[in-house]
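## Example pair
The file below holds two records. Each record gives the amino-acid sequence first, followed by its structure token line.
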Amino acid sequence: MTITYYLAKEKETRIMAGHPAPRFSLIIPAYNEQGYLPALLDSVEIASANYIDCSNAIEVIVSDNYSTDRTAEIARSRGCIVVKEEKRIIAAVRNAGAAVANGEILCFLDADSLIHPNTFDVIDNAISSGKVVAGSTGVTLDRMSLGIALTYYIGMLPIILITGMDTGVVFCRRKDFIEIGGYNEEKLFAEDVDFLVRLKQLGRARKQKLARLTSVRAIASTRKFDQHGEWHYLPLLVRGLYAMFFSSKRFEKFARKYWYDDRQT
């Protein structure tokens, strides 16, 4: 069954049962994230309490990629919904979380992040304006160095400014997630870029735009730089852009090692 099928059937069941939907579902893909998850959930609690509507309008879903540490235990102890996804593809892990989500607005965020206290209010205002199809908050990195700064300002920021696509908390309406079919599980990497491209195309027909809500940037971990060095990402970015346009089995092997095998243990 497709992600669209599960989401549509769940919505139908919920409506028939008379259960009101939360406004937001925050979906956190996770693999062995016991070191990062508590701090993220602390920041989510603060943002939930600050949300002008009400705190119980936000559900948190941890999509656990069969962690071998206490990730799932921590998530459950903090009141999160936990769903398991065995497939080692990040798009599938995001889709698994979305498949059990009840919120009108779906938000996706990596586990090694922190969110801004006003995140939900600002996203709600953007969506409610009717001018925004989807978007992202962008990020502030948790530390800076010369190598990281050059990577961001030379390698990433121009692409962000040209395309309007960013990272951080990525959000869209639940019905639009269904319409475009969720994340593409054929992609090992850049699934988030592909996702926003399709949402941007959907919005163009409605005269809606992608939004960058930089007033509520998330804080992103630089752990890949800690693991691989301050300068490693610039050549990786070039290889990744090449692989997006030209099939590369060699890069696919590298991508599996970098994004999947080389994860928190």
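Second record, same layout:
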Amino acid sequence: MTARLTKGSGGAARLRELLGSGQMIVAPGAFDPLAARLVEEAGFPAVYMTGFGTSAALLGRPDVGLLTMTEMADNAGRIAACVDIPVIADADTGYGNPLNVIRTVGAYEAAGVAGLHIEDQVAPKKCGHMEGKQVIAAREMAQKVRAAVEARTNPDFVIIARTDARAVEGLDRALERAALYREAGADVLFIEAVVTEEEAAAAARAFPDVPLLFNWAEGGKTPPISLPQLRELGYQIVIFPISTLLAATAAMRAILQEIAGAGTPAARLSDLPSFGEFVDFIGLPQVREVEQRYAAADPGGGDQIGR
């Protein structure tokens, strides 16, 4: 038996296998390791590390480019270490020019994630469903994609190229950019913030043989299209980046209001996991097993070496 308290091995190979199978990969968002464990427990094949949620959780601030690459990679690593399913991670703009992108890919690979996406926004970036986005030149972004592809040391590591040009230059230009990024070597294309079902369909028609990622963001610019419809259109990855974040916010707000109003959370305890259930879920039995494995045979007898 190997004593391990971390998981996260082989994620890139598994994600590549899922992409090759043609099945739809539904990846709810996680902003921290606890959320990732819940995604895995629910039976999903992959988890998405959301930049929006990471900014909200680590800084309590909106997704407007405030987090650094190392902060994002660090959170991605903690998430990847606690689950066995592949982690797809937001890497914003790649945090600079192609040299910075090379470092970003290395950091994310070392963190144990299965793949990342970079986008063609001007830094500091904004959430893809906010107003006021700007994009860099398409050729500049293509070079960043090329740098990302050539920088990976694991050929299974998945590079996803995202374009935010729909909001700035229109759909046709966004599709032209996506084609350029595919030529640069991107494994998956992510055409962010299409605003109608017909635009989502047009993007899928433009890339019939390329894996596409669809961003299902509650309250965002893109309409709520059903999974069967997205599957029929040809989307292979669907992320739900903020579902867990919004649900956690609502649940925490409710319990805090109960404590503020009633003085204790007693009336809501039936809605909550018990203490024992929760510590079992986060791995206390495994911790105890490791403790027992390495416990001293005679903890009270002192160190007898050399005597």
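Notes on the second record: The chain has two domains: 11-245, 249-293. The chain has a mean pLDDT of 93.
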